[in-house]
């Protein structure tokens, strides 16, 4: 069945057709072949041909040529464009050369992926491809799930080790003497899905890679980095910032593509009223569950991508219930897939989807970067995933064999989603975003300097590798008695492991274990940073299609006790926030207004939670909570306006707070269009008279210690960002404000006060004085790479 026919069926129900706001038809594309470089071993080319690939695509051949020349390279082409083969062919050829060396281990390669699932899947692919090469390529996965009895063999004999940055940070680099023969022979480091290394996580990975380069140099190796990325803006710039090396960019996709029909879908308004009487739109979760049900009944192999673990569980439960009414056997062919599952649960789901036993899956982005799913017919994206890069990555999971595919973006009741389904040009006519990361963030850099010193004492020669912030940080680490200078080097002084100072995922703290109260069974884990909002007392927790209520949260022991229940609602936490300015780095006049960027301290506290009806989102009630406050030092962008500007905008004292609050909410909702973040990565505060600025002020800050680069990106794109914010509010069809424009799902004040028209007038007068935007400053590494 063609993708257009599948969409027609989905749109054939009552009022369904009116929910499609736009349909984009992307035509098929012919592929362009080339030949492999003549330095590739004939045995490797024969193995590739045996796998059914007669000739490479042009971008694969170019990448292989650069790799053999010793150039680090980033391949930034579309999903299913053969990026894996582009780096595997030169790697396998080099490993085959190394196998003929006298010691039998003349070359090794390291593969890094952001998820265990992807590493495991890639290992299976490598073994299949390399089978004709005999014992020359010994591939093995080395991660937290690897049995201890296998680890010594991998260290001693594997030539192609597949792992993740977490294991590299905690397991391999601190134990580098045991890996010395592997590191001494290291020729290539493959960094797969490198566009996911953004924000705080990307900044940590950047420093882990610098530590790896430093230890390789200690053993006499200088590996070439081969990076693979989904289509991204300026991939070479991001790759240089990630690795600290000059990187060649290959972004001309020469692979063929089947037809893609991409529909934008807006759920209808309901008769229900939300907070402050605002109209409530049907949830993207309920709408996506309906679509998954219909696709499964049609026999269409589908994945629904949803932003939250809870959402994945809810969609699978609703779809299973509705399918059971049609055919009980169909209900068993739909499941949920998310992080937090036990490893054996994830592997079973991956195999069931790969074999076709499962027809439909509701998945978080854990699957977006997971197994290489082939043969999918449709992808439903429940809510904009935060970036255009992720949107195309998810949409590209369908149609992998070159056949036509359907993708449907279902809008949430959110300013950005609503803007996008009514402004398709923002998705289809604009390039994807630049990847944002900041390796010089002191909260990121400091623990990695400690880890590096523990691995090998730090010398003055190392400082250039770790960046310009080092000289200022080292005395602070000495004062904190973490490092001690002896002669010409800094040494780690503690007994504990320096690598344990930080969690590179930027989560901090040990995960909270979710335990079934009656049996003591471990259901899964929740990141410590998310525990206050997701497993507080009274929260609804979903796992494997079962619903639990949190009976208690013990923050000291990091345990949440739950019991199975079936409430007709979900829960959403609410918090309050205050902010103080620590330092203003940059201030730009916008007429009489000011746009600023600098360091701030944010104090927030979860104070209550709402109970919302599952399908409709209707608010059923609010319950108070008693949880401790948390303090965050981070980076922020903020703007102020004067009394004269308020008069010009007809903003009276009575509506000032609501106008500022509404502008804050909408600007947070729109920032993901300009920075690689989503609204849960950032926060905001608006104050009619802030004690540090003595003016009406709106702050938008990074939700991570030390910042993640998002507020800086907002500062440099402020004119475009705030113009889009104003347009999103002004074009919304509601009267007084709704979740599609100025209401926020995480507002600690219950979305009160808000003033929609005041926000539009306020942003109008602010933007009158806005200068042209200034591009972000290049780092020294980027300047060196460009030179």
From TrEMBL:
Q: Could you tell me which InterPro entries the record lists for this protein?
A: DEAD/DEAH_box_helicase_dom, Helicase_ATP-bd, Helicase_C-like, Helicase_put_actinobac, HRQ1_WHD, MZB, P-loop_NTPase
State the residue spans of region: Disordered. Answer: 1-20, 768-787
**Which PANTHER family does the record associate with it?**
ATP-DEPENDENT HELICASE HRQ1
One Pfam family matching this protein: Helicase_C
Does this UniProt record's set of keywords contain Repeat? no
Q: Does the keyword Repressor apply?
A: no
Keyword terms? ATP-binding, Helicase, Hydrolase, Nucleotide-binding
A GO BP entry is:
interstrand cross-link repair
Gene3D superfamilies per record: P-loop containing nucleotide triphosphate hydrolases
Gene Ontology MF terms in the entry: 3'-5' DNA helicase activity; ATP binding; nucleic acid binding
Q: Which residues form the Helicase ATP-binding domain?
A: 64-250
State what protein this is by name: Helicase
Q: Which organism is it from?
A: Streptomyces echinoruber
The source's domain of life comes to Bacteria
Pinpoint the Helicase C-terminal domain residues.
291-443
